[in-house]
Amino acid sequence: MAKTWEELEDIQPIVLKMFKNSMMKNRLAHAYLFEGMKGTGKRDASFLLAKSVFCHSPMQGYIPCETCVNCKRINNGNHPDVHLVEPDGLSIKKAQIQSLQEEFSKTGVESKKKLYMVVHADRMTVNAANSLLKFLEEPHPETIAILMTEQAQQILPTILSRCQTISFQSLSAEKMIEKLKSHNVEPQIAPLIAQLTNNIDEAIEFSQNDWFVQAQKIVLKLYEVLKKTPLEAMVSLQDDWFKHFKEKEQFDLGLDLLLLIFKDLLYIQLGKEEQVVYLIEKERLEQFALQSTSRRISEQMTAVLEAKRKLHANMNPQLLMEQLVLKLQEGSLFV
């Protein structure tokens, strides 16, 4: 569900203040790059800005009314002068950008204004990025481009130079936990969820999801099986992990949960128990922490982070997990 001005202002006050100033002074840029972690509201902000631009009767001159036909059509994704481009599979193709250019060469259906959004702009192919660059170099009058990314360093410098970059800040873990508790999320699970997402809606969904509860158990079991033989570890992967974590996003979440176990072990060893997030399993983790060294835990964390990098580079997830488990078992794990 699209966030209102008030809801997003609570999460990204600096961004909304910038929107307000630009709208009031009629100085909106022709191209923006919204960059920040997943869940920080970039997509919500893009639609909110679109509504501010097209709203028939914005309140105070910049807050979309949410009730006019334009606001409703933008919320429903069917406004003729607002276009969304998302990756087709793993990337955004040149043909998608060319199709967008063709749309924008036409006169606006209902006004001269046009706005387009490119989600995961870092995933454009080289040809797509070059096509977009030409588009940005010769902007159509009253056209606004919004590029969104979690990986600004992957965007062509020539594209970056033509966009006004807006950074979306993550909520602090403390504020996220506070918000989750206000939504009746259990205090013992809130710190863990706050480390996994910055999106309140997604976080609440995690807290109510049986799949997520089971995921935590499977990840903890995988950690425990590391002290057994490689064969037993592989059997555990086949019997538990691969049956539960099926999609790429699920694999990624599983790796994040595993990483948090190692972080908690390290915090316990450093005497920073207040930073532990697996609160339900804290006593067991304290026992596990006695069976390893800080150096070994750091090495294992590095191995998990490398596995996440390979997953994002589209390595086969099953092969990746098998290699990771063997890597985590290397050396004397529990001395």
UniProtKB/TrEMBL annotation:
This is DNA polymerase III subunit delta'. It comes from the Bacteria. Keywords: DNA replication, DNA-directed DNA polymerase, Nucleotidyltransferase, Transferase. Its EC number is 2.7.7.7. The keyword Transferase applies. Pfam families: DNA_pol3_delta2, DNApol3-delta_C. It comes from Cytobacillus citreus. One of its GO terms (molecular function) is DNA-directed DNA polymerase activity. It catalyses: DNA(n) + a 2'-deoxyribonucleoside 5'-triphosphate = DNA(n+1) + diphosphate. The keyword Transcription does not apply. Residues 253-329 form the DNA polymerase III delta subunit C-terminal domain.
